[in-house]
Amino acid sequence: MPGAYSLSGLSIVTPEAVIASGSLQVDQARIARLGSTARFDVRFGDGYTAFPALVNVHDHFNGNYLPRVGPPPGEFYLNWSNWEKDFKSSELLQVERPKIPPEDRYELSAYKNLFSGVVTANDHFGHEFNEPFIPRMPMRLIGNYTLAHECSSFDLRWGEGIEIEHERARRLNWPFITHLEEGFDPESQDGIGVLERLGCLDDHCVLIHCIGFSDEDIEKVARAGASVAWCPASNLFMFNLTCKIRLMLKAGVNVAIGTDSTGTGSINLLEEMRFARATYRRLYGEDLSPRTIVDMVTRNPAKAFRMERDIGALEPGRLADVLVIRQSAADPYESLLAAHTEDIELLVQDGTPILGAAEREELFTARGARASRVKVHGREMLVKGDPAGLLVRVRRAVGFRKVLEFMPLDE
Ligand SMILES: [Zn+2]
């Protein structure tokens, strides 16, 4: 297995510039340097671009299933707890989904992310629930975080309580993650007030949704250096609106895009990026630049998770988490915004490929990466693990030919 190899002849997106016909050298799990090639070189050529692998700031790995469950036609929720009631009493949750064991539900979620170029994601569930699954995922599920479900009297009581969890985050230099102000009743809208009164509003906070924020809340979040997870598809589906995203960006808040679960959100992060762009245009009549959107799924979530030394940029010293796509436009950022699974040429985690075109088999073999062969929208691809086998197990469990759009396999 070559410890060192290089990717060459492709455009490389770094925080400073897009390097044309560049090269990137990997040593073991990390990026060793840019601009040089190793003896084992994977040559691309014009029309390919390397980005840092994507980061999904907010997902529910136990909850990615379809179809969505939402409010009756023409109605929307006052807060997330109304959705929770509809969801828990749905036939889907009562009868169908429980037939699939949690380890398979987690693996489905891992593939939802992997097939959209995501190497790193956060599952916003308690450690007591997801700990056994984290090491078995075919991509990286973050384990170093603390959490509260939400900051209200009716939250779901995940973790040990806001103050204890937040204190642990401070001590360990981890993020403290909580849903916040996901609704419009007075208590939901006091989320920032709760965090302030407990002395827990600071740069460890990763605040999910924030649709009830006032202008003053946004100022406070910016001053505290906290991060916000923006999940526009889920917000629009449940509430018919999303957070004040333009004001947040203007205030300098660190915003990352998350999918939420497919129970309410987009089918994957690439779709959520497009939805975010369309939503911004619809709300404000102006374009959110593709580069800003790409930052929201690379550098910004890396900062939110306090993992900037490891992920979020193609820089020497960071982990070799790389996403190579086939370019479809002159602008590399536009190309990523337009990409689907079959446009992914190569996806690498810790220096080892986890998804790629079948023509890249040599690198899989050289790194000892075990992969299965699948067909995605007509394209032969190699993928870590066995997603086709997983889909067979899921169908056997539910007793019919279940289709899940986030598993893009031709059959
Ligand atoms: Zn959520």
Range of strand content? 15-25%
**Total discrete domains:** 2
What is the typical, i.e. mean, pLDDT? 96
The CATH architecture designation of the largest domain is Alpha-Beta Barrel
Query: What is the CA-based Rg, rounded?
Result: 21 Å
List low-pLDDT spans: none
Q: Give the CATH class of the largest domain.
A: Alpha Beta
Q: How many beta-strand segments? A: 18
List keywords for this structure.
single chain; 411 residues; alpha/beta; Urease, subunit C, domain 1; TIM Barrel; 2 domains; 10-stranded mixed sheet; 5-stranded parallel sheet; 15 helices; 18 strands; 31% helix; globular; binds zinc ion
List the helices and strands and how they pair.
Blueprint (H helix, E strand, L loop, with lengths): L3 E10 L4 E10 L2 E5 L6 E3 L4 E5 L1 E6 L20 H9 L2 H6 L5 H13 L3 E6 L3 H4 L9 E2 L4 E3 L13 H11 L3 E5 L10 H7 L7 E5 L5 H10 L2 E4 L1 H8 L5 H7 L2 E4 L11 H16 L5 H6 L3 H6 L17 E5 L5 H6 L6 E6 L2 E6 L3 H6 L4 E6 L2 E6 L2 H12 L13
Parallel strand pairs: 1-4, 1-5, 6-7, 7-8, 9-10, 10-11, 11-12, 12-13
Antiparallel strand pairs: 1-2, 2-3, 5-14, 14-15, 15-16, 16-18, 17-18
This protein binds zinc ion.
